[in-house]
Structures are given as C-alpha cells and as structure tokens.
Design a protein that fits this description.
The protein is an alpha/beta fold. The protein has helices at residues 3-11, 16-27, 44-58, 63-67, 88-104, 120-128, 141-153, 191-194, 210-217, 238-248, and strands spanning 69-72, 75-78, 109-114, 131-138, 159-162, 173-178, 223-232, 253-258, 264-271. The strands form two sheets. The chain has a seven-stranded mixed beta sheet with strand order 5-4-3-6-7-9-8, with helices on both faces. Helix 5 (88-104) runs parallel beside helix 6.
Length: 274
C-alpha cells in the first residue's frame, strides 16, 4: 500500500487533517511533506498500526492518546489515558508565569507543580526559567508514571512526589503553580472528554473548587516570603476563587487574566511582590 492509498483509506473513516497527522507521525515526517511521498510504499507492519489508530479515532478516542504524544510550548511530551490532555489555555498559563518569574525573581527559583499529571507545566518551566528545584506532585501514582517518562525523555532533574496536594510536602517555594481539577461533579462536559480522560483529573466537588480550597488552606506554610501562585481556572470561577484567596491570603495581590478567547482562565496571586 502506498502513502496515497493509505491516505485515501484513512479519509474514508476520519477527518482528512487527522489522517495526515497520523500517517506523517508514523512515517516521521511533517504532514505538509506527505505530498512529496505519495508514491512511496508503506511497510505492511506500519499499515496495520495506522489502520488500528484510524479505527481508534473513529471510535472517538482523542487524537493525542492515539499518537501517544502532544506538543506543548515547543516540546513533545508523552501522554496516555492515565493523564489529562494538555490544552492551549495551559500553555497560556505557562507563558504568563514565565513572564512573571523573569519580571519578579532575579535568583533561581524553587517551583512546585501541584496536580502535575503528565508534568508538562513544571517541566516546561524548568526549561524556560532559572530554577533551583522543580517538584512534580500528584495524588495519582499512574499519572506520576507518565511524569517520570517525560522527565527521562527531557533529561530533567525534577523530583516526583506522590501526594494529595501539600499533604506529603515539607518545603517552601518561590513559585506554586497548579492546573487542578475544577469541573463541578454534575457539570455536563463533552462526551469525548468524559469517556476518555481520567475523572480524577477533571472533577472537584459540587462547586468545582475543592482542589483550590485544599491548596489554599495549607499554602502559607509552603510559601517563601516572596511567592508567585498561578492557577488555571474554570471560566466562571474567578470571583469565587478571589473570595477564597482573600480568606486565606488577605494581604496578597490578585490578578485575573483572560485567555485568547476572552475568558477568565488564569488566576495569579502575588505575595510579597510589589
């Protein structure tokens, strides 16, 4: 079977863009380069792999899980069904956090990524700013196995800690960042998300604030005198989280930032930072 034959077969089952991405990934080339390889024969073994992936996509398995990787802020990360699929909003959270670290900290920083999942946030920050340490924390042993794969792939020095937020952490940090579960238990979400991604990484109680509540309750003992806290939030949670923050950190400065879609998705807390 040639590349052209395979593309024709794939397009009969899935969107043409997905077909190009799948085939290009397996052939180790850019999707735009496929047109230059249409007459090339594809090994039978690779044809069977691609067909299996095509049928998985046809059955509503997310593309990122089928590929087994995702590009995030310029790096490729391994992912599978044990972790949440990173979104564009999380890249925006990282981008703004990098900006603030460079703006407010002159020395290398200690960073903790709470509810790290695949580790994309903490490992990206490790590459983009000067760090003394990066700790990746998650309650899920399975998620931390994925984080560990990414640590090895990126030759990271990050420390992996299994903990329910700060429960097993005994250190202070310059930067505390988290994209925790924030969906309400009864909230209706896309079927492809609900049926594929780990619920432990999605749902957070009746109001979706359980994880923020748990973090903020014990955050003071893990903050250095000067500390940046960064959260990804649900688009309707800014005011409720502001109220929670004022309860536990009344002297902190708060900044809420919108994502590229104009929705409140990033919540920054500045403590000891002018």
């Amino acid at each position: 079977m040639t590349v052209e034959d395979l593309l024709f077969f794939a397009k009969g089952h899935i969107h043409s863009d997905y077909a190009k991405i799948l085939i290009a990934e397996l052939l180790n080339c850019n999707p735009l380069e496929l047109l230059n390889h249409l007459e090339e024969k594809v090994e039978d073994e690779k044809v069977e792999i691609i067909k299996k992936e095509i049928f998985a996509l046809e059955n509503n398995k997310p593309l990122q899980y089928v590929l087994g990787n995702v590009n995030f802020y310029g790096n490729k990360f391994y992912i599978d069904e044990r972790v949440l699929i990173p979104r564009f909003e999380t890249e925006e959270l990282v981008e703004n956090t990098v900006k603030y670290i460079k703006q407010f900290f002159t020395n290398p920083v200690d960073i903790i990524d709470l509810g790290c999942g695949s580790g994309v946030i903490g490992l990206t920050l490790e590459k983009k700013v000067s760090t003394d340490s990066v700790d990746l924390v998650d309650i899920s042993k399975e998620a931390l196995e994925v984080s560990n794969i990414n640590c090895e792939n990126l030759k990271s020095n990050a420390k992996i800690i299994q903990s329910d937020m700060f429960d097993c952490v005994d250190k202070k940090y310059d930067v505390i960042i988290s994209n925790p579960p924030y969906i309400k238990n009864n909230e209706v979400i896309e079927a492809i998300v609900k049926n594929n991604e780990p619920h432990l990484a999605l749902y957070a109680g009746e109001d979706g604030l359980d994880c923020y509540r748990k973090i903020l309750k014990s955050i003071k003992e893990h903050m250095k005198d000067k500390c940046l806290i960064a959260f990804e939030i649900g688009m309707t949670q800014a005011n409720d989280l502001k109220e929670l923050t004022n309860k536990y950190l009344p002297d902190a400065k708060i900044e809420i930032k919108k994502d590229m879609s104009g929705k409140d998705r990033m919540f920054f807390i500045f403590f000891g930072i002018n």
